[in-house]
Amino acid sequence: MTPAWYPWAGPAILIAIGMFLIVMSYGALIQSKRTGRHISGIPFFGGLFVFLGFIISPIKWLAFLALLDYSYGMLVYCLLSERFRQDKKK
Predict the structure, then answer these.
(1) Quick check: 50 and 18 in contact, CB under 8 A?
(2) For residues 90 and 87, what is the distance between their CA atoms, to the nearest angstrom?
(3) Model confidence over 22-43: pLDDT tens digits?
(4) Model confidence over 67-82: pLDDT tens digits?
């Protein structure tokens, strides 16, 4: 007989690692704003671990929490801002 927490054992470890990386990335972002120097976190990996953890868990729709990682939004911003800068130069 398997324990009731068994389906959450593996996903909980992945989700905990992912949330730790997301918190550390936000901490690096705040520290870089204070000091004026660029301090890189580990972009994308926190969201990736959270996504994988929830995909293999019983509640799959929570995989959207992977979007808490700010690096995905920054990627979209960087790609779009570069395109808009090129359009203004023409």
Answers:
(1) yes
(2) 6
(3) 888 888 888 888 888 877 767 7
(4) 888 888 777 887 888 7
* Six token digits for residue 88: 């203004």
Measure the N-to-C terminal CA separation of the chain; round to a whole number of Å: 68
| Structural domain total, the chain | 1
**Helix runs in the chain, H state only:** 6-35, 45-55, 70-89
The CA-atom distances, in angstroms, between 69 and each of 21, 23, 76, 85 are 9, 9, 12, 25
Indicate the burial class of 22 (C-beta count within 10 angstroms; 0-12, 13-18, 19 or more). buried
| Domain that residue 26 falls in | 8-89
Does residue 33 belong to any structural domain of this protein? Answer: yes
What six digits make up the tokens of 66? 């992977």
